[in-house]
Amino acid sequence: MSKRYLLLEDGTIYEGRAFGAEINDYVGEVVFQTGMTGYQETLSDPSYCGQMVVMTYPLIGNYGINRDDFETVRPALKALIVKEAENYPSNFRSEMSISQFLSQKGVPGIEGIDTRSLVKKIRRSGTMKGILIDDLANLDQVIDYVKQTALPKDQVSQVSAAKPYVVPGRGLRVVLVDYGMKHGILRELTERGCHITVVPYDTTADEVMQLQPDGIMLSNGPGDPKDVLQGIDLVEDLLGKVPIFGICLGHQLISLACGANTERLKFGHRGANHPVKVIETGEAWMTSQNHGYTVSTESIEHTKLKVTHQAINDGSVEGVEHESLPIFSVQFHPESSPGPSDANVLFDHFLNMMKENKLGGVTSCQKEQIFVGS
Ligand SMILES: NC(=O)CC[C@H](N)C(=O)O
């Protein structure tokens, strides 16, 4: 296999071997993911749009790529960085190796580098930009190029649905705003019988309300939430009209629309084993996470939001709810995919919220009768 190098903006060079697609001159943010399994879901999570993902688990690809575990059809990440990529996967569901998959989808990979030292570096210095190169010619110019290239601000428009579409069901009507949605969210709502209309990120509140939703779900998605102005406007216009549940980017948009602030984390939370405290019960949930930004704790004090979940590792905000309106959101991923399903109950909470809101003053006994089987 031919040589390939990862070059960071501070000039550090990691030598490894090429796999997957040919390189291009893409400059991405180098981030690390700590899941021990679930690489296929990570590869296909649109929230990694524009990023170069380092897997901390040393062997990636051992159970291959299968038909079922995709979170979207087109991977949005720009490179995969691993210690060892397995070329001979062994699993009854496997249809191809990770290298074949990445080649097909145009995503370059680099293997054989010391991912431990790379992750330590990112943890010390914070996430950095990087580039993959196949030779070391003109290094100074390449470093300048990496430094000068700004990270894109339009990732959501790259990964959002281009047109609305319907996933029919006989239950509650949900409008799901797609900022780069993981299909796990769709699966959770479909399992609960919802009739879902997925709409693009720039859909207006009037267009959403014409669909007569019982509730609105705001998906995860890539990039800085402050760049997604249509999303912030949409939540502002929808406040108080109908129940809203936000996940990850959706949570950040709700927080911004309610007057809180977001900030960049030094190196983010990406993995399938992030413990979160549920403030109300004191429980700890193990959660799946993938975010580089967070809602800042102090900024929440001046809003009508209250913190419902908190990261146990660093104390950052992991969930909020509105003090009077049926609106709540979480920074982590209750749809897991990959990872534990401790937080799955939040989808039931959303359904209950929609039912309560729809029924207004109806007694709980009548509600039982109306929703039998829903
Ligand atoms: N998974 C997500 O929705 C990520 C949200 C946002 N792009 C962040 O990095 O914080």
From TrEMBL:
* Chemical reaction(s) catalysed: hydrogencarbonate + L-glutamine + 2 ATP + H2O = carbamoyl phosphate + L-glutamate + 2 ADP + phosphate + 2 H(+); L-glutamine + H2O = L-glutamate + NH4(+)
Enzyme Commission number, as recorded: 6.3.5.5
Q: Name one GO molecular function term.
A: carbamoyl-phosphate synthase (glutamine-hydrolyzing) activity
Q: How does it assemble?
A: Composed of two chains; the small (or glutamine) chain promotes the hydrolysis of glutamine to ammonia, which is used by the large (or ammonia) chain to synthesize carbamoyl phosphate. Tetramer of heterodimers (alpha,beta)4.
Q: Which residues bind L-glutamine?
A: S47, G221, G223, L249, Q252, N290, G292, Y293
Which purpose does this protein serve, as stated in its record? Small subunit of the glutamine-dependent carbamoyl phosphate synthetase (CPSase). CPSase catalyzes the formation of carbamoyl phosphate from the ammonia moiety of glutamine, carbonate, and phosphate donated by ATP, constituting the first step of 2 biosynthetic pathways, one leading to arginine and/or urea and the other to pyrimidine nucleotides. The small subunit (glutamine amidotransferase) binds and cleaves glutamine to supply the large subunit with the substrate ammonia.
Q: Does the keyword Nucleotide-binding apply?
A: yes
Protein encoded by which gene: pyrAA
The name of this protein is Carbamoyl phosphate synthase small chain
Record pathway: Pyrimidine metabolism; UMP biosynthesis via de novo pathway; (S)-dihydroorotate from bicarbonate: step 1/3; Amino-acid biosynthesis; L-arginine biosynthesis; carbamoyl phosphate from bicarbonate: step 1/1
* Protein family: Belongs to the CarA family.
Q: Which SMART domains match?
A: CPSase_sm_chain
- Record PROSITE patterns: GATASE_TYPE_1
What are the boundaries of the region CPSase? 1-172
> Which residue range or ranges hold the Carbamoyl-phosphate synthase small subunit N-terminal domain?
2-133
Q: Name one GO biological process term.
A: 'de novo' pyrimidine nucleobase biosynthetic process
The UniProt keywords, alphabetically, are:
Amino-acid biosynthesis, Arginine biosynthesis, ATP-binding, Glutamine amidotransferase, Ligase, Nucleotide-binding, Pyrimidine biosynthesis
Q: Which residues form the active site?
A: C248, H333, E335
